[in-house]
Amino acid sequence: MILAAQGLGWVRPGWYPALLGGSLAVLDALGVVYLLRVARLGLNTLSCQVGAVARGLGVVNAVVFLCWVSGGPDWMWWAAAAAHVTGMALLGFSMVLGPLARLSGPHRQAFVAEMTAVGAAAVMIIWWVGLDPVLLTGGPDRDWIILAGLPIADLMLAMAIAAMLLRGVIRHWRDPISVLCAGMTLAILTDTAWVAGLPATAGHATGPGGGIVLIAVHVLLTLSPLMSSSGIGSVTDRPRRTGPPRWVAYLPLGALVTGVGLLLGVIVANAGFVRWSGLIVATVVMIAAIAVRQWLELSSSQARAARDLETGLASRAALKDALAGLVRARETCAVLAVSVPPGGTAPDVLRSCVRADDLVARLGDSTFGVLICDAAVTGEATTVAQRILVSFPDSAIGIAVGRTDEPAKTVLRNAEIALNHARRAGTATFVVYETSMNDRRATDAALAEALEGALQRDEFTLLYQPIVELATRRTVAVEALLRWHHPLHGDVSPGQFIPVAERSGEIVAIGQWVLEEACRQAAAWRADGIDLTVTVNVSPRQLQEPHLARDVLGALERTGLPADCLVVEVTESAMVNEALEIAALRTIRAGGVRIAIDDFGTGYSSLQYLTRLPVDILKIDRSFVAQLDGTAEGSAIAEAVVRLAQILRLTTVAEGIEEEMQARELANLGSQRGQGFLFSRPVPADRIPALAADVTYTGFQQLSA
Questions:
Q1: By C-alpha distance, which of 49, 28, 31, 53 is closest to 39?
Q2: Of 13, 270, 351, 576, which residue has the fewest beta carbons closer than 10 angstroms?
Q3: Strands of the 333-339 sheet, one edge to the other
Q4: How far apart are CA 627 and CA 621, in angstroms?
Q5: 368, β-bridge pairs
Q6: Which one, of 29, 428, 23, lies nearest residue 206 by Cα?
Q7: Which residue(s) pair with 360 in the sheet?
Q8: 439-449: pLDDT as tens digits
Q9: Backbone angles phi, psi at 244, to 5 degrees
């Protein structure tokens, strides 16, 4: 239909403006449909939703433009132009949302700085080529809405393109993301050409010649989500991507040199060289020196990343890059993961056991990797393994053969899984990976991959378990508990995914979301007259973040929850960098937030921590509660914790109460509060008001059933 409309426009040029407006409206409407479909699939949900709004503004632009060319009032031209500029700016913004959401702290700030530098250089070129000539000649009044808005829109589009380049997601011209990038690039060029030629180009754009370019832009922008929603993924599988190409690191430096060079060129062209010669020469020398210095620093950083400084061998990252190259080239290869006894001769001995073309890398303290490329790769890999076993009689070796349908990191992980099996054998041996070897490490790796983006896909929810006064059975607080429902894995136990999130670092962003959501919910309960304290667990990884105190106090400020309504809960075993973590907890407590120690009594240094930690609440571990049987022996530890808390004037909360006898005995021992299945299982937020209103044992039992 679109092609037929373009053909009709060449035959009937007078009809073409209306045909162009209708074609653009149809393409943008399809773009909205496919973007929302991609969002429902859970692929970059927020980015696709914002992108759908941007394409919706494109529909508005096309429809209003159609009305204007049909004889509508002059203000319609302004409205169409405003919708176009806003839509392009939103489209660019939608593309940078994903990387910004996945990064945090200094990494996010560095990414924004690099992205802005590259985008700003592009806008400088656009301004000089397109906008400056119009500003000098003083364009028509109605065009100033375009002149004022296009730099912002083009900046967002340029930043989006820079973001895709910097993140290394553009790998093949047939990828949906590459098609989208091409559409945005063409949109920038089209806008620049349009503004540079106003008002003459405006008329040309409504003709078949210029309209073809506009149609091409919108076809590309629509084709990208259509490919994604139809299951046409990246030609290069995402798991195989090992990061952006090395040249991408030099983009911000190139942007700086380009921008300064353009600025100096403008000065020379307009004011002459002689007048500003001193400043120009000094600036050129300074920028050249900075560029050379940064170039050397980047080259040195990349060299350090590819080389293990202690042994001189390749690093894990270098091995993964080389392996990824072989996988993409569909060459046969194998990886050996070798565990050797500690010693300084391992690098030299390993080099002597392999061929000159094979790569030896250091994977860990006493673990090494060998990458072998050969037509008869399995036989060569076992031969190398036998040589290593002769040189290191106490070593263990895992072998994984690369397959054409396996990502590079899967091959390396398979080799390490086989190494674990070799270690369990207890004797010096090598083991070749088989698909039946499914250990915990492989499961954790799969969970780590699934965790990426789970927060953006809204797969996490919070449940709340009441904490009651044991004397009155009145609900006085709740503990926020994180739950994860994955579309493929289903409900994943916190005991499974929390440790994986800790190791991958995803727990930092997830923990911040839990904090914000719990504070928001507690503030909403208070607004409804339900005065409850909310307890939020802080993981060991979060405790190591330098901005933890700021994040906690900031969440209170943003949600309006009073500080005394929040309890931050840590485990005594979470302390790694005590100076940093205790200082953060003291800052949080100084802001009015209370601190609780979870699982108290299970660590080796509980009493030691009590003398230094700013503690308000001790939580008696469920293992001690389970020992309560009405005897002095069964209650000894729980009673000791309660007595210690009374001496230190701390509140006690007993966890894991499942029987009425346990609740009564804890109350007799002096424990003020308790939580457990006896009172309620963890429930959604909408059930807490009913639990808070019921103060009878029967009511609790019924509501938690």
A1: 49
A2: 270
A3: 359-362, 367-373, 333-339, 396-401, 429-432
A4: 11
A5: 338, 362
A6: 23
A7: 370
A8: 555 666 777 87
A9: -70, 155
Q: Which amino acid is at 631?
A: T
Cis peptide before 199 (omega within 30 of 0): yes
Please give the mean pLDDT across all residues of the chain. Answer: 77
Q: Name all contacts of 420-428 with Cβ < 8 Å and 24+ positions apart.
A: 422/339, 422/396, 422/397, 422/398, 423/339, 423/396, 425/396, 428/389, 428/392, 428/393, 428/394, 428/395, 428/396
Q: Given phi > 0 = left and psi -120 to 50 = alpha, else beta, which region is 343?
A: left
The count of other CB atoms within 10 Å of the CB of residue 184 is 25
Residue 207: partners with Cβ closer than 8 Å, 6 or more residues away:
13, 16
**Is 221 in contact with 91 (CB distance < 8 Å)?**
yes
Full DSSP string of 626-654: TT-SSSTTTTHHHHHHHHHHHHTT-EEEE
- In 3-state terms, what secondary structure has residue 338? strand
Residues 177 and 471: their CA atoms lie apart, in Å, by: 61
DSSP string, 6-56: HHHHHH-GGGHHHHHHHHHHHHHHHHHHHHHHHHHTTSSHHHHHHHHHHHH
Q: Which residues, at least 6 apart from 683, have a Cβ–Cβ distance to it below 8 Å?
A: 463, 464, 465, 691, 703, 704
CA distance 123 to 17: 29
pLDDT at 135: 56
Amino acid type, 640: A
In one-letter notation, the amino acid at residue 114 is E
DSSP letter string, 498-523: HHHHHHHSHHHHHHHHHHHHHHHHHH
Q: At a CB cut-off of 8 Å and minimum separation 6, what does 453 contact?
A: 44, 102
Give per-residue pLDDT as tens, 287-314.
777 767 666 665 555 544 456 666 778 8
Most confident of 328-332, 427-431, 685-689: 685-689
Average pLDDT over residues 554-577: 83
pLDDT range class, residue 697, cuts 50, 70, 90 = very low
E strand or H helix at 379: helix 377-391
HSE-up (13 A, CA, CB side) for residue 495:
1
Secondary structure percentages of the chain, helix, strand, coil, to 5: 60, 10, 25
Distance CA 462, CA 479 (A): 10
DSSP 307: B
What is the pTM assigned to this prediction? 0.44
